[in-house]
Design brief:
Layout: H1 3-22, H2 29-34, H3 41-70, H4 78-87, H5 90-103, H6 115-127, H7 132-158, H8 168-179, H9 195-211, H10 220-229, H11 240-262, H12 271-280, H13 286-293, H14 297-302, H15 306-309, H16 313-322, E1 327-328, E2 333-335, E3 358-360, E4 367-369, E5 379-381, H17 385-391, E6 400-401, E7 404-405, H18 425-436, H19 439-449, H20 451-457, H21 472-478, H22 482-490, H23 492-594, E8 612-614, E9 627-629, E10 640-641, H24 650-656, H25 682-693, E11 698-708, E12 711-720, E13 723-728, H26 733-737, H27 740-744, E14 750-754, E15 758-766, E16 769-777, E17 782-786, H28 790-799, H29 815-819, H30 822-828, H31 831-836, H32 842-852, H33 898-909, H34 928-934, H35 941-948, E18 952-953, H36 963-972, H37 1020-1031, H38 1034-1047, H39 1055-1059, H40 1081-1094, E19 1133-1138, E20 1145-1151, E21 1160-1165, E22 1170-1175, H41 1189-1193, E23 1197-1198, H42 1201-1204, E24 1229-1231, E25 1237-1240, E26 1247-1252, E27 1258-1263, E28 1269-1274, E29 1283-1289, E30 1294-1300, E31 1305-1306, E32 1320-1322, E33 1329-1335, E34 1340-1345, E35 1350-1354, E36 1359-1363, E37 1372-1377, E38 1382-1387, ...
Parallel strand pairs: 10-18
Antiparallel strand pairs: 1-2, 2-5, 3-4, 6-7, 8-9, 11-12, 11-17, 12-13, 13-14, 15-16, 16-17, 19-47, 20-21, 21-22, 22-23, 24-25, 25-26, 26-27, 28-29, 29-30, 30-31, 30-32, 33-34, 34-35, 35-36, 37-38, 38-39, 39-40, 41-42, 42-43, 43-44, 45-46, 46-47
Length: 1492
């Protein structure tokens, strides 16, 4: 802090005191009590502060006088030059001059005290005059203060000023000792001045800092005043060091300038004596301490620090100690010699009485005032300066300046007395009058006002009262002469008395300040220590927090980097997906436009070769039957043929491979039962909560492999809260090696799947490790992923929707079901019981077993496996009633031939290899190679086959070319034990080389093209149909459980497998190897390749024999059985129901399922009057145990009471007008599966409408076509009643709509039911659409235009093909499609055609009847027709063989439908009645006819 700042600071504080204390009448007793201060403490603080400022002003006056003197002074000797060079400081001078000029309150430099100081002293004394004790004490202290100053001033005027010479070397030596004193309690404050300055300043400043600490217990006000008075900071002792340094620097500046500007030569007298006296630390008079404040220039220089620290007597004495002096009166020097005090004590001695020394222990916090020994009587020395100098000594209080003894201080010469009778006596009087004229009245006033007290206090050397005796009080009262007053004060008695009595009060005043300071110092030190401790702790915390913060930042950065990487990944994935989607869309648009039936299509295009591929769409039985256009199709003309040399024997292949025996033991322990109680496991709920808490879009991201046929693509699987994304890593070396032709057939490389599309999630194995998942979608495809470990699999399942394994197998839709083992799924499912009860077919059951055992279309090594069932491929006719035509399913394929069985048994028993466990068969019954060889003729398997075989087709002798030959090989070849794949039972296209691949020529010259069929199959469709009949036959049903034991059951492994000759290579079994335990990447790759080549066992589903299927005869009375071998006990016609209205019944809908709220037969007449006729499920019970005649008379259909009573016809009549040109027929209506709504078309406003069957009210109008809607169709319904509705129109388009069973409206969103959007627009017709049929299971819409042709669309809007009938089949009128893949179309003039869903014409016929209604049985094997002749006929669908003709009716048939159990046929007649026929398709089953 600069000097100006320090002075300003002091003045401001003083101004504050002026206002708050002197100008106010506040009572401070409350504040003092509150702050635990002694009474009057605040006023004493104020006095200390006033004295401080007064002395500072005195010094400034001296400075100004000295400035005048110095201008004329002459430097005469070297020591003085040295001194001046050491101490001179222009900066200091400038600083003080600035202070003087800018801030000084001094109005008259010649006066001893300025008016403001006198007023303040007066205010201190007289403010609280009522408080007599306090006022008396303050008066005494002020008397002492003023007396000393007056006498000093008198002496100053009397004496000439002289320079004091010093030894510079001694000073610097002493400075070093002082500054480096080991006992110093404070760090010496250094300034940019000379060493001498330092030496002079250090002790004063040290004390000053020490004494500047406010008292602990003092109040805030006092702390501020004390602190500032003593050089402390304004704020209660918070930064004492800085503040004291600042104020000290101010003091030093003043001293500096005083010394450098006002020194004059003085006489050097007896330096040795002075030094001795100082070193000995002799005591000095308190009077002299005070006199030193305004003494000679050198002394003033020393006391220049005092403006801040003046009130402390110790400080004064210490300052005085540096420069011992004499107190000069007119004609005598008063010297008080003192006994040397003991070390560590401060003795303050007075003449002729008991002293009041103050003891200061170095470095201690307090000064204790204690009585000391009486001092000897003073000597009055009038002999001159020499004796005075020799006997004068420094005050003992300066013996210890912060632990530095006075002997470290330099000796300073004393000042010689002036002769009394000077030539300038008159000017001295004038000066004296001028200097003291203001202050003298104050002193008189105090003497007069406090006369009683002072007369008692100020006693002479003999105890007399000085104020009363003689002229004392008279002088005070009456005289106005300043000189008289000064003379009185200079007298020996007065000096002694004031020194002894008033000085004591002053010392007490000062000591109180010191005590406060020391206590406050302790307090501040303690607080500082505490603060340091707290700060250290906070610093440690900060370090810890900083480290934590840094780690969090690093973590956050890493997370952000991951997130950005993820976002990057998602963005690039989205780009790829968009690219793929755009390409598909482009292809779709091209197909729509350039198709033969498209806008740009021409007839000539039909000559072009269309390439087709098998679509990945699966039906309810997981059959992939649909072929779609193949944009990547070719005849693979570049593909060569392998030669015979390319093959070694399989034995050689096996032996040449180095195999790795692992220590893993196959685990056959039964797994724990799966608990199915409760909605879902708690882990799932917990996980769900955790997932909810995750911020950001991506819930889970993990490396994964997409598993597709012949492709394993590494990439990243990301799961958000609504979608799954897979993004292949295109930079992966393995991915780069994959043939682009193969990738063209691989879906999901840049995949995105909505949660809403997920229907089932299965745990799967990959390379025998349980680390994969297969997800089944609503679009009837599936996608398979392999993950790093099982923990990841679990995380993924818990991030996906809770769908379980779907709704087909009777298992709850819970995540734990998705994670369940195959054996748990099998045990918990109801499928085995359903199979035993014959509710499901053998095919469906085998497909279920394959699915839960981990077989999948996505991994060719784990392709579903089906048995050979027929053994006769030679005869011209196949009799399925002969047991000899069927295989023994209790034996594996390898041991059917007894000779070969012996060979395998010997191999096992004579096994010698120690490294590999013994086995019967070195190849597996299901491998990727065998699967591809079966399917080599259809894409995408052709491309897969070529990719796996270096771009070559197989050697012609080895190519799958004949079914009979393949069967023979399975019986004779020791390296061929292949079972079949499911396609043998439903996919005739696999046997046809439709793309004309060059498969070579056999050695006998036969060209290899289509597969040679058995003689008993005229075409592939016949073979598939008969093979399937064989699979479903009674012979197979009775022993299929034994084959299941071999493949999926207890004979798969272990001792039973050995007995059954059913042991394969150990690496085909689950649990035989743990790939994660193999650290060597080379060995692991070899092991993986080995597993890929050998094939894999399905998971073992049961470890006990599988239960057999129940006999068909046992189940003959159950109506739901598909095979009911019963006699025809019932009549053909059950009942006829005539409605009051004679209007023809043009539509019949029999939704008769028992679980419906109202099972009913809904009929609609030509006049749009509908009836909801209740259905009673009794018909099927006839002939069953417990059947009664009462039930027999209970008819199955009960007429709608509202129609029968003719009461509520208005609730049954659709009154809205249809377009006049529309002919009302069966196609104009659709009834929802729950019988609650009717959809009607044909309205003039181009809409179709939805009506409630309960009220007859209109509930929705649906627009979308550009012309009148002419036909409607509904797909089969699933759980919840959702289904597809297709509308055909005169605008030659069809629209596919979605019916929400939940909201009972067209469209998903009930809020937007006014304007639903169609799911697809189907184009390609040139004329009005007159008939349409939709099958959700196959995903197909088949529609016929008025003038042809019939088109096949997918439900996504792709036009697949036209169904081209013979020339005379041009105008289609009725269409029926079954989920088994038959499409029956009725053309005008009695012509029927049967197409496969892939467009192949399977059969045709002509009838004489004009058919108005047709339908297919649920298994697609039988066709029922009815027409204007009124005759119901039953046909075999595959070849139109007539099976049965019902008795004719008296009116034409307009509509028909079958009950849910396929046992009752209801026809709507032109006469306005309905007829119910008994129908049993089983009686035309070949087994029923042949056996029963």
């Amino acid at each position: 802090m600069s000097t100006e700042t320090a002075v300003t600071f002091l003045n401001r504080l003083m101004a504050m005191v002026d206002v708050l204390v002197f100008s106010s009448s506040l009572n401070f007793s409350e504040i003092e009590a509150e702050k635990n201060m002694s009474s009057g403490g605040l006023m004493r603080q104020c006095l200390r502060l006033v004295c401080c400022v007064a002395v500072r002003n005195c010094l400034e006056c001296r400075q100004r006088q000295r400035d005048r003197v110095t201008k004329t002074s002459v430097v005469s000797n070297k020591p003085q030059e040295n001194l001046q060079s050491i101490t001179g400081s222009k900066a200091a001078k400038t600083g003080v001059e600035n202070v003087a000029s800018n801030l000084s309150p001094i109005k008259d430099p010649d006066r001893l005290l300025q008016d403001v100081d006198i007023n303040r002293l007066r205010a201190v004394v007289f403010r609280d005059v009522d408080d007599s004790k306090q006022a008396q004490f303050l008066a005494l202290a002020v008397v002492y203060f003023i007396s000393v100053l007056m006498v000093s001033k008198y002496r100053d005027i009397l004496e000439p000023q002289r320079e004091i010479a010093r030894s510079g070397s001694q000073i610097s030596r002493n400075i070093r000792q002082e500054i480096n004193s080991p006992t110093s309690t404070e760090n010496p404050i250094t300034f940019p001045e000379s060493n001498k300055e330092k030496e002079i300043l250090t002790p004063v400043e040290d004390i000053q800092v020490e004494s500047s600490i406010p008292h602990t217990d003092s109040g805030i006000g006092e702390e501020q005043i004390t602190g500032l008075m003593n050089g402390s900071d304004l704020e209660t002792g918070t930064v004492p060091d800085a503040m004291s340094e600042l104020l000290s620097s101010f003091s030093s500046e003043v001293k500096k300038s005083q010394e450098s500007l006002a020194e004059s030569p003085i006489e050097v007298l007896k330096p040795a004596a002075s030094v001795t006296n100082v070193s000995q630390g002799k005591g000095m008079n308190v009077k002299e301490i005070l006199k030193s404040l305004v003494a000679a220039p050198m002394e003033r220089a020393e006391s220049g620090a005092e403006p801040v620290s003046y009130p402390d007597p110790t400080v004064k004495r210490e300052a005085q100690a540096i420069l011992p002096m004499q107190f000069h009166s007119f004609d005598r020097s008063v010297v008080v010699p003192v006994k040397k005090p003991p070390p560590g004590s401060l003795a303050v001695n007075t003449v002729g009485g008991a002293g009041t020394p103050s003891s200061l222990v170095t470095g201690s916090a307090t000064n204790v005032i204690s009585p000391a020994a009486a001092t000897p009587k003073s000597m009055i020395n009038t002999t001159g300066a020499a004796e005075a100098a020799s006997t004068s000594s420094s005050s003992s209080s300066s013996s210890f300046v912060n632990g530095a003894t006075s002997k470290n201080l330099p000796a300073v010469q004393t000042v010689a007395p002036m002769p009394e009778d000077s030539a300038e006596n008159m000017s001295i009087t004038a000066k004296l009058e001028r200097a003291l004229e203001k202050v003298a009245p104050l002193l008189r006033e105090i003497f007069v006002d406090f006369a009683p007290f002072l007369s008692r206090t100020l006693l002479g050397s003999h105890g007399q009262e000085l104020l009363i005796e003689g002229t004392g009080l008279v002088c005070m009262k009456s005289s106005t002469s300043v000189v008289e007053l000064v003379m009185l004060l200079c007298s020996q008695e007065w000096q002694n008395s004031i020194q002894k009595n008033a000085g004591l009060a002053f010392i007490e005043l000062i000591n109180e300040g010191r005590l406060l300071c020391h206590a406050m110092k302790d307090h501040i030190v303690r607080v500082a220590n505490e603060a340091e401790f707290i700060l250290n702790r906070q610093r440690a915390e900060d370090v810890h927090k900083h480290a934590e913060f840094e780690s969090q930042c690093a973590q956050y950065t890493a997370d952000r980097r991951e997130e950005e990487k993820m976002c990057d990944h998602l963005i690039s994935a989205a780009k790829h997906r968009d690219h793929v989607t755009a390409n598909q869309l482009k292809q779709k648009i091209l197909n729509i436009l350039t198709n033969k039936h498209g806008a740009w299509g021409t007839i000539s295009q039909s000559q072009q070769h269309d390439f087709w591929r098998l679509d990945y769409w699966e039906d309810d039985l997981r059959r992939r039957r649909r072929f779609i256009r193949n944009a990547f199709g070719s005849v693979h003309s570049e593909a060569l043929l392998k030669s015979a040399e390319d093959y070694g024997t399989d034995e050689d292949v096996i032996k040449s491979k180095k195999t790795f025996r692992t220590q893993a033991v196959v685990n056959q322990n039964a797994e724990t039962e799966l608990m199915l109680e409760g909605d879902d496991d708690t882990v799932s709920l917990l996980q769900e909560k955790e997932i909810d808490n995750l911020a950001g879009p991506v819930v889970l991201s993990t490396p994964a492999q997409l598993i597709a046929p012949v492709v394993v693509a590494k990439g990243t699987l990301s799961i958000t809260t609504t979608e799954i994304y897979f993004e292949v890593d295109e930079d992966d070396q393995g991915f780069k090696k994959i043939d682009p032709k193969v990738l063209a057939y691989t879906e999901g490389l840049h995949g995105k799947w909505m949660f809403s599309e997920i229907r089932a999630v299965f745990s799967r194995r990959y390379l025998l490790q349980s680390t994969a998942l297969e997800v089944f979608m609503a679009n009837r495809t599936s996608v398979m992923f392999n993950f790093p470990d099982q923990a990841t699999v679990k995380k993924v399942v818990y991030s996906l929707p809770r769908v379980g394994v779907g709704t087909s197998y009777g298992l709850p839709q819970a995540r734990r079901i998705s994670l369940a083992s195959p054996r748990q799924l099998f045990k918990s499912s109801n499928m085995t019981q359903r199979w035993q009860r014959r509710e499901i077919s053998n095919f469906e059951y085998l497909m279920f077993l394959n699915t839960v055992a981990g077989r999948t279309y996505n991994d060719l090594n784990q392709y579903p496996v089906f048995p050979w069932v027929i053994t006769n491929y030679e005869s011209e006719e196949l009799d399925l009633t002969l047991p000899g035509n069927f295989r023994d399913l209790s034996k594996p394929i390898g041991s059917l031939n007894p000779k070969r069985a012996v060979f395998y048994a010997e191999r096992y028993e004579t096994w010698e290899d120690d490294q590999i466990p013994p086995y019967h068969y070195n190849t597996h019954y299901s491998t990727a190679t065998s699967t591809l060889s079966w399917l080599v003729r259809i894409e995408p398997f052709t491309t897969f086959f070529l990719n796996a075989n270096e771009g070559k087709f197989d050697y012609p002798e080895r190519t799958f070319s004949s079914i009979a030959k393949s069967w023979r090989n399975c019986q004779r070849d020791t390296s061929d034990v292949k079972e079949l794949i499911p396609e043998f039972y439903y996919l005739p296209e696999m046997f046809v080389n439709s793309n004309n691949y060059n498969l070579g020529i056999r050695e006998d010259g036969t060209v290899v093209s289509d597969v040679e069929l058995p003689i008993w199959a005229k075409k592939p469709e016949d073979f598939v149909r008969i093979n399937r009949m064989g699979l479903e036959s009674e012979f197979v049903s009775c022993q299929l459980h034994q084959w299941i034991d071999l493949i999926f059951g207890y004979k798969q492994r272990g001792p039973e497998a050995v007995r059954a000759l059913n042991v394969f290579h150990y690496l085909t079994y689950e649990g035989s190897v743990n790939l994660d335990s193999i650290t060597d990447s080379g060995i692991r790759e070899a092991m993986e390749a080995h597993i890929q080549n050998l094939g894999q066992m399905p998971s073992q589903l049961l470890i006990e024999p599988h239960p057999p299927r129940s006999s068909a005869m046992h189940l003959c009375f159950l109506p739901q059985s598909p095979l009911m071998f019963k006699d025809q006990m019932q009549q053909d016609v059950i009942m006829v129901l005539k409605f009051p209205s004679n209007s023809p019944v043009t539509h019949v809908a029999a939704n008769t399922l028992p679980h419906l709220s109202t099972p009913a037969v809904v009929t609609v007449t030509c006049s749009r009057l509908f009836a909801v006729n209740r259905w009673h499920n009794t018909v099927g019970l006839r002939g069953a145990p417990g059947y009664s005649l009462e039930q027999a008379h209970h008819l199955p259909i009960e007429m709608d009471p509202l129609i029968a009573n003719n009461a509520g016809v208005n609730k049954r009549q659709i009154t809205d007008l249809v377009d006049q040109s529309i002919q009302i027929n069966a196609h104009c209506f659709v009834v929802t599966a729950d019988n609650r709504y009717i959809l009607v078309c044909g309205f003039w406003d181009k809409s179709f409408r939805v009506y409630s069957t309960e009220t007859g009210k209109l509930t929705q109008i649906v627009f979308g076509h550009w012309d009148v809607v002419t036909c409607l169709a509904r797909s089969e319904s699933y759980i919840g009643g959702d289904c597809y509705i297709v509308s055909g129109s005169r605008d030659a388009t069809l629209l596919l709509w979605y019916w929400s069973g939940r909201h009972h409206i067209i469209g998903d969103n009930p809020n937007n039911s006014d304007y639903p959007a169609p799911r697809a627009v189907l184009t390609g017709h040139d004329h009005e659409v007159v008939s349409v049929s939709v099958c959700a299971e196959l995903g197909l819409v088949i529609s016929g235009a008025k003038e042809g042709p019939c088109l096949v669309h997918t439900i996504t809007g792709d036009l697949l093909r036209a169904l081209e009938g013979p020339e005379n089949c041009v105008y289609p009128r009725l269409i029926s499609v079954s989920s088994e893949g038959h499409c029956i179309i009725y053309y005008e003039r009695g012509r029927f055609c049967n197409f496969s869903i892939n467009g192949k014409l399977l059969g045709q016929m002509e009838t004489n009847d004009s058919t108005r209604a047709l339908l297919l049985s649920s298994d697609g094997q039988n066709l029922v027709t009815g027409g204007d002749n009124g005759v119901v006929e039953v046909w075999q669908a595959c070849d139109f063989k007539q099976l049965y003709v019902y008795p004719g009716c008296d009116a034409g048939i307009r509509a028909m439908d079958l009950s849910h159990d396929q046992r009752t046929l209801i026809t709507g007649m032109a006469s306005g009645s309905i007829v119910a026929f008994n129908i049993d398709f089983n009686r035309w089953h070949y087994e029923h006819q042949n056996r029963y």
